[in-house]
Amino acid sequence: MTSNAKPPRPQRRRWLLIAVPAACVIVAIVALASWLWSLDGIVRAQFEGKRWAVPATVYARPLELYPGLAIDSVGLAEELRALEYRQVPLAPEPGTWHRQGALHLLHTRSFPHWEGAERSARIRVRIDDGRITQLTGADDGAPLALARTDAARIGHIYPGHTEDRLLLRLDEMPPLLLAALIAVEDSEFLSHGGVSFASTVRAARANLRARRVVQGGSTITQQLVKNFYLTDERTLRRKVREAAMAILLERRYSKNEIIETYINEVYLAQDLERAIHGFGLASQHLFGAPLDQLPVEHQALLVAIINGPSFYNPRRHPERALARRNLVLQIMADELLLDAAAAARARAQPLGVIPAAEARRRQHPAFMDLVQRDLARDYSPDDLQGEGLRIFTTLAPSAQAAAEDAITAALAAQAPGLQAAAVLADPSSGEVLAVVGGREPGFAGFNRALDARRPVGSLIKPAVYLAALQQPARFTLGTLLDDAPLRLEERSGRVWEPRNFDRLFRGDVLLVDALAHSLNVPTIRLGMDIGLDAVAQAVAGLGAPQPAQLFPSYLIGSGELVPIEVAQMYQTLATGGFHTPLRAVRAVTLQDGTRVTRYPLSTTQAFDPAAVHLVTAGLVSAMSEGTGRAAYARLPADLLVAGKTGTTDDTRDSWFAGYGENLLGVVWVGRDDNTSTGLTGATGALPIWVETMRRLRPRPLMLDPPGDIETVWIDAVTGQRSAEGCEGARLLPYARGHAPETRSECGSLSENGTRRSLSEWLQGIFR
Asked: What pLDDT, in 10s, does the model give residues 716-746?
């Protein structure tokens, strides 16, 4: 059998032998080019776009210094600690300070405030007896009316994946730290094209010799690519992709751009759920100081932990971290970045890492919670988590520290499980100065200052008396109230027989004394007389929510509020009836300083100032002779303040709210499980409030009466008009025209001149 097929020609065979491989090569080149083009697009898109979701940076209010400011040396030191100023002789550079007795030398930093840039300055501050008595320029001695520091950075609002970083420009990186980073991590960084084959070979040999991974061969550029673009998978495919992207990155961008991105991207620590990226934030997290203030041994530790942030964690594994740091110092000496003596001194130093609790204390999570709630009205989460906004808040570091320390000290002596919360505010501006959400202020979690809705006890009583005193024709501070046994039958048929805290009844008592001594029965009678609705309207006017249903027990505090709502109520009282919404944010700017939002002061008149003045007079009496009188065992006798204790059934909740001229504070003490604390308002919350006020030294209340207020001597027993010097005479303020007209016997005689008191007689002799 024969075949007609012809064998292929030799030329055709040769052509196929050439064409097929060539086609394969062309396809491979095209595929490689397409792959590299795709990788190049990924590199450019990330590197040239928004490289990170930059969290909003949150600042405290700047400290404004002026003659007469109430601040002691401890408070000033706390403010400067929050600003991370270093205490060094002569304060030679911005961000330093020095104290010599009563004199304090400050070298402030320049800072772009939301209302204009502030220049660096050297100022001299003299503090005597808790107040600034002298403020001058340190160089020329010229008197200053006002000096302002920069604003302390108190936190970030970061994305859901909880990466946090404090962005640095390359020129803000200490030169020695930058040189050490390159020497340790990639000595050929300035000369290679993205991949160092020599380093890869050396690392492979070292790892084979040790039979484990002891050395990495990746360049800084490769590390950046891995962190920036790739996953942590350990495969040959990923390594090839990493090398290719590193070469592309080096071809497109300068060494400065690459290293600047690296110093902000590198992962260095973990703080609970927050990942610490970049040298700027790691410096704050580990040492509580800015990067440019770190000594050489601290800079070496930052470089050391890059190799394994978990393995070399200086808080958990100090021995490993110390050995690795000293190795870095030795490399720095070998590379002539340090002389041998300096390296030896640095190796002899301890790690110097601050405790994690101290680092977290600087975060103020309860206050930050309030800031985010305030901002939520105007900004989406994406804006706050990724646009790098600058949030200027009202937090006062010295006030925050005073409240935190007072709570920590008070609860340390109590049984475990006791919790506390506090809110401090400037009543005139409505600015919240401090928020404490629990007994461990540095830990985020349940924020009791904003979310613990608890019965307020007697803190509600000023609203009852305010509602009554708005009817001056019926009720005055000198009105007699009936403090006798009371029976109230509820709709269910249950009979309620309220009692005073001390289980005593006093008969007729002055209205001012019923408020000052927090008597339950007269308060209930008064509230029932004016009507529950009138009381609820007064509560709403003060700024707190009304309950869905009203019962007589509401008059003595069965209604539930959170501490910041109580603070809002007492803010309106502290300002004479002018309601100013409490706020935690002053302004928001872009990264370049452009202001995008301002939160101005907003005030409305909610009550007649005369009625509010009378309530405040009653609350001053509560502090001088009523339920808050124990405060003056610790407070200066000349510090006039108004305040009110609150205690709920079975002593489950202990409350205190009080204010001076420029400072309002609310404190709650209780248990999350609602069991008894065994503490009244006077024994639980009041001591914390007192200690806070003692440190902050608020201005005393002026108690300037409105023009339609007059003061009249009355008889404390009968409520009739009396005279100075008469037995039992009390001087009380009244709405003009509503003081009692009927006179007591002594008052009548004094008025007619037929009978005078002993003091009047003596005054007549020596006049």
From this structure: 999 999 999 899 899 999 999 999 999 988 8
**CATH H-level superfamily of 162-358:** Biosynthetic peptidoglycan transglycosylase-like (1.10.3810.10)
| Strands in 427-503 per DSSP E | 431-436, 454-455, 480-483, 488-489, 495-496
pLDDT value of position 204: 60
Distance CA 751, CA 73 (A): 54
458 catalytic? Reply is yes
Question: Residue 96: exposed, middle, or buried by beta-carbon count in 10 A (0-12, 13-18, 19+)?
Answer: buried
Domain boundaries, the chain: 62-148, 162-358, 709-766
Four-residue CA torsion sign, 409, 415, 419, 422: negative
d(CA 508, CA 529) in angstroms, rounded, equals 16
**Model confidence pLDDT, tens digit, residues 178-226:** 999 999 988 888 888 777 776 666 656 655 665 554 455 688 888 887 7
Ramachandran bin of 65, using left for φ above 0, alpha for ψ from -120 to 50, beta for the remaining angles: beta
The two beta strands, 147-148 and 131-137, are: unpaired
Catalytic residue among 78, 79, 118, 185: 185
Please report, as a single letter, which amino acid is at residue 478.
Answer: G
Are 664 and 563 in contact by the 8 Å Cβ rule? The answer is no
Lowest mean pLDDT: which of 412-416, 508-512, 676-680, 751-755? 751-755
Q: How far apart are CA 598 and CA 375, in angstroms?
A: 11
Bridge partners of 157? Answer: 56
Point out the catalytic residue in the list 196, 199, 218, 458. Answer: 458
CATH topology of domain 62-148: Penicillin-binding protein 1b fold (3.30.2060)
- Confidence category of residue 86, pLDDT binned at 50, 70, 90: confident
- Give the per-residue pLDDT at 763: 41
Q: Report the largest interatomic distance among the alpha carbons of the chain, rounded to a whole angstrom.
A: 162
